[in-house]
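Let us begin with a simple case.
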Amino acid sequence: MKTKRTPLIVGLTGRMGAGKSTVARYMARHWQIPVYYADDRAKKLMNENEALKAAIREYFGPGAYRDGRLDKAYLAERVFADPAQLARLEALVHPYVHRDFWQWYAQQNSAPYVLVENAILGKSGMLPFCDAVVVVDAPEKILIDRIKRRNGWSETHIRQRLSQQPPYSFEDVKTFYINNSKDFKDLPDVLKDIHQSLLNLV
């Protein structure tokens, strides 16, 4: 358990296609839990923060942006096939996301806890600040089928992306695991129990 603060910080993580966003939306809707969507915020910062944009251009070349907007296809082609390039991009982006998160967190005064939705919670450097973690996962075959239907990507590309997001296990923080093999048919009961357990930590 980390040092007590209000609200508590709860990491929400899991591999692509597991259903993190579904969990986040449910908890926000039913219990008004604030959610910081780290991936969405990172994309916004990569498009709007001039210092970060300059750092990305300097390392990945001017082609990283087209008409002032991040060229996601250009960048994905370089980083997802090369772990070293991906690590470099993350090293550039994460400090900006951290600062953005703490600015957002300072405004969340009324909730008992906040959720930080982050697929790479451990790699992002946010884990040490979490008082608890909720992990959403499912067997890889199910994840691949879901992502194929949702994104239309090839299985090779999906496996390449999933290889950057190994199954998660956290030993030093209170952790709740959700197995989303059945498309959340039992989600209300599962999340009600987790929500109550998180309230008990406050």
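The second case is a distinct protein. As before, the sequence precedes its structure tokens.
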Amino acid sequence: MDLIFRITQAIDAVNNVVGKSAAWLAVAMVLVQFVIVMLRYVFGFSFIWMQESVVYFHAALFMLGASYTLLHDGHVRVDIFYHTASAKKQAMVDLLGSLFFLLPVCGLILVVSWPYVAQSWSMWEGSQETSGIQAVYLRKSLLIAFAGLMALQGVALLLTSLLTLFNHVAPDIKKDGAQV
């Protein structure tokens, strides 16, 4: 059981680091957008690559932050019964949801997006604009990162649910990975 705890801790730690790092993209996005507005409306000129960078920041923020949100139970759910249910019933819902919904959807996203992303990498796909960001392949790669990180967090959720169902109490661990 200790190995399972360590596996879930490692997955949680990865998604914590990625999520906290991705959160800084919101700050970058706001700052770049502010500069774009100032350049355009005060000085009368703009850069296409700056405008495209906002799209890149936005995509990365949401695609890389989704697993962090799942880790901290921040996704929207229809919470009619879950909130008042016992820990075992919540664990059963999380287990079934991960096993039959989250992991298959992540697998489907990986299978469908892999050729799309690979084709983009094979031709080093860039912006249609000559002065745009010539790294569209990196933005498309976020699909793979999203599905991979979500699947990892789904595995951690599944393992934690199994441990709860079988009455194995995890050591008291904060979500940042530190033991209490």
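Residues 2-165 form one domain. The CA atoms of residues 37 and 46 lie 8 Å apart.
Keep these points in mind for the review questions at the end of the chapter.
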